[in-house]
Specification:
heterodimer, A: mainly alpha, MetI-like fold, 3 domains, two-stranded antiparallel ribbon, 1% strand, B: mainly alpha, 2 domains, two-stranded antiparallel sheet, 73% helix
Chain lengths: 420, 324
């Protein structure tokens, strides 16, 4: 009986251990399932041929490179496509839609058409033409989608749109405009990378200096005060750091004079975010790096000192090289923390859907640019995102997850190497 | 040829470089003086960076705490005991958010502790012998270890996203924005914290305890439950308190799973707003920075107390280990 209980408990405990891996699985599964449609090959594949999307896609390509004559030709063709689709849509809708719905729909379509025609008549400049083509194509696609699926866009139709966009376009697309089904996350990737880079550049000297100081130089009495303080500060809620950024840093940085800035310098942006993040990753890097330095066997140090090297020479020539992999791991873990930080970033980076770019002709003003991080994109939009946008948000989560996994495995690899 | 240095354990060659470039050709004594001067400068810089690192951190936290304390004391104690007005007004205190934070902590820890401690006991006490059992189980053990390691590095917003998809979304479990969704999602977040701390505590229990108990005829489970776990209890409790701190300071997970209403939750399925969320909401949406700072001060004070508790416990543990 006792043995039976023993065995039962054994498996019960195994079960609870397995729950944790199960959760990892679930997390990946769910983000992937929800974000999957945004990533072709994982998401549902639907034939695109019939619903006008390829037209849109090719035309978009032309739109980027075409001269005015080509644009005009494109516009006329698009208009024809739009008209044909419109007619079909009206016919199919006539069969099973209420009069009211129909009216709304037709009016919308007619409005689009009128816009296109007007643009074609007036054809003032290339920019307007470009815009007109865009509108026309959008109309064609809209109508085509409606024709295929009725008036209320079921999810598979949305998936088609992203499937057509493709993984490459999702990762490198510069525009995030969910209303127009333009869902590229390049600007968030750039934002996350810039802000992390900035934080590491600003925070690393202090963090490493602090780690060496605590491990080698500080007398025990100082260390006993500082070490717990740093540990405590690692546990302070990120919103507190974010609040400091909002109250102190943003107004300060907003005062920096920037000539001819468009958009103006508000203080919110990469610089504020990098500074806040630098402070936040400081305790992480310091703690882990200090542990790595302390883990260097004492004989190394004693040997070096016995050979006549000064303490400083020993630190630079013996201890730091020996602790190298651990220190690098600390930095990488700091990077992981920086990439994953959410709330503080939302509070100070401005969350605009612009890619980070200079405010005037001085490239350094890039750091005053408001932008958005991957994490911020998820947190800001998930609560009200529906349909395609929601899929894209989850796809953002997948990208972030993969990024963090790569970073953390790197750190773990280095830690393991150290342990050997 | 590499001479005059040592090769470290990691294979890095370490030379004593200062010997060669004695360019001055001066007396060796000058070399020593120079080296010590370099060291003095370098150590001075290290002192500076070390103190600066702490100063920067203290500046940031201190600014919020001092400003916040002022805001709290301005209408004390009404800031702590009145409800937030909600909506676009930042008026009122933070009573409901304190209570909601308490609820969420209780629920999250309630969910995560049995799982986490169970997993740790398994990994420390049973995993090794089951590894040798053959078959599927060793592989599962490896997988579980990998799971714990991986979970620890996942950023909290991913947990939020996952919680949103699995617990909140009507297409899955459909708990809506609620205490239950938030706590379940956050439990996944603190699980690795509890597992790691408990594992460490269990591993620190001397093998002689186990051997003694087993030699007296106790079964494995009797040994574990009556000898090993009680001995490791302070460490396990430290882990739990540590995760209480994580829950209190967590914002991203709750931001996407808890809804954010300023009202007091009435059931497991009603939403709420923790203190950290309140700070964020007040700062971002109403720009009432003094209220946000006040909330921040209360938050930081809570965290400080939690850390103190951990310190007291770990000191007691160390004392006991020394005594025995």
């Amino acid at each position: 009986m006792k043995m039976l209980v023993d065995r039962g408990i054994r498996y019960l405990l195994l079960a609870s251990a397995l729950v944790s891996i199960f959760i990892v699985f679930l997390i990946f599964l769910f983000t992937l399932r929800e974000g999957g449609p945004a990533i072709p090959g994982i998401g549902l594949r639907v034939t695109l041929g019939k619903i006008g999307y390829p037209v849109y896609a090719t035309h978009k390509r032309v739109l980027r490179t075409a001269d005015e004559g080509q644009l005009r030709a494109e516009l006329e063709q698009a208009l024809m496509v739009g008209e044909g689709r419109l007619q079909e849509a009206v016919e199919s809708a006539l069969k099973d839609r209420s009069a009211q719905e129909l009216q709304v729909e037709i009016q919308r379509a007619l409005g689009l058409q009128k816009e296109v025609e007007q643009a074609l008549d007036n054809h003032v400049g290339e920019a307007e033409l470009r815009n007109a083509v865009e509108v026309a194509l959008q109309g064609a696609v809209d109508v085509a989608l409606r024709e295929k699926v009725g008036f209320d866009f079921p999810s598979w139709a949305r998936e088609v749109v992203l499937d057509a966009v493709g993984l490459h376009a999702f990762l490198t697309g510069g525009e995030w405009r969910p209303q127009h089904d333009e869902l590229g996350i390049r600007l968030m990737i750039v934002g996350s990378v810039f802000v992390t880079l900035g934080a590491v550049i600003l925070g690393l000297p202090l963090a490493l200096g602090g780690a060496i100081f605590l491990a080698e130089v500080a007398p025990d009495s100082v260390r006993e005060v500082i070490r717990p303080a740093v540990e405590l500060l690692a546990g302070i809620p990120s919103v507190v750091y974010g609040l400091f950024g909002m109250v102190v840093l943003v107004p300060l940085i907003g005062k920096l004079p920037v000539a001819n800035a468009a958009p103006p310098n508000t203080g919110y942006g990469l610089l504020s975010a990098s500074i806040v993040l630098a402070v936040m990753i400081l305790p992480t890097i310091t703690n882990i790096a200090e542990d790595a330095i302390r883990a260097v066997p004492r004989e190394y140090k004693e040997g070096s000192l016995a050979l006549g090297a000064t303490h400083w020479q020993t630190i630079v020539g013996v201890i730091l090289p020996a602790a190298r992999s651990g220190i690098i791991a600390a930095v990488i873990l700091g990077v992981g923390r920086a990439l994953g930080e959410t709330m503080a970033m939302i509070m100070v980076i401005g969350n605009s859907i612009r890619i980070a770019q200079p405010l005037n002709n001085n490239p350094l003003t890039t750091f005053l640019s408001q932008t958005r991080t991957l994490t911020g994109n998820i947190a800001v939009e998930i609560a009200y995102a529906t349909g395609l946008q929601e899929d894209a948000i989850f796809a953002t989560g997948v990208v972030l997850f993969v990024l963090i996994m790569v970073v953390n495995s790197l750190a773990r690899l280095l830690m393991r190497e150290r342990a050997k | 040829m590499k001479e005059g240095g040592i090769t470290t354990r990691t294979g890095a060659y370490v030379g004593i470089e200062e010997r060669a470039p004695d360019r001055s050709g001066s007396h060796p004594r000058g070399n020593i003086v120079r080296r010590h001067r370099v060291q003095k400068v370098a150590f001075g810089l290290l002192w500076l960076t070390g103190l600066m690192a702490v100063a920067v951190l203290l500046l940031v936290v201190g600014y919020v705490v001092l400003g916040g304390t002022k805001a709290v004391l301005k209408d004390f104690p009404s800031f702590l005991v009145t409800d937030p007005r909600g909506g676009l007004s930042a008026e009122g205190g933070i009573r409901t958010t304190i209570i909601t934070t308490f609820y969420v902590v209780l629920l999250t820890i309630g969910i995560a502790t049995p799982l986490g401690v169970g997993a740790a006991i398994f990994l420390v006490e049973y995993a090794e012998e089951m590894r040798s059992a053959g078959g599927l189980i060793p592989r599962l053990v490896g997988v579980a270890r990998f799971g714990v390691e991986t979970l620890a590095g996942v950023p909290s917003i991913i947990f939020g996203l996952f919680g949103y998809a699995l617990f909140v979304s009507a297409e899955a479990l459909g708990f809506g924005f609620s205490l239950l969704s938030g706590s379940l999602a956050c439990a996944c977040l603190v699980l690795p914290v509890i597992i790691r701390a408990s594992e460490e505590a269990l591993r620190a229990v001397p093998h002689s305890y186990r051997h003694g108990s087993l030699a007296l005829g106790a079964t494995k489970w009797q040994t574990v439950s009556q000898v090993v776990v009680p001995a490791a209890l302070p460490g396990i409790i430290t882990g739990i308190i540590l995760s209480v701190g994580r829950v209190v300071s967590e914002t991203a997970v709750f931001y996407v799973t808890l809804g954010g209403t300023h009202n007091l939750p009435t059931s497991l399925l009603s939403g709420g707003r923790t203190m950290a969320m309140h700070l964020y909401t007040v700062a971002m949406e109403t720009r009432a920075f003094d209220k946000a700072m006040g909330t921040g001060a209360v938050l930081v004070t809570t965290i400080v107390f939690i850390n103190l508790a951990i310190n007291v416990i770990s000191r007691r543990v160390t004392a006991r280990l020394r005594g025995e």
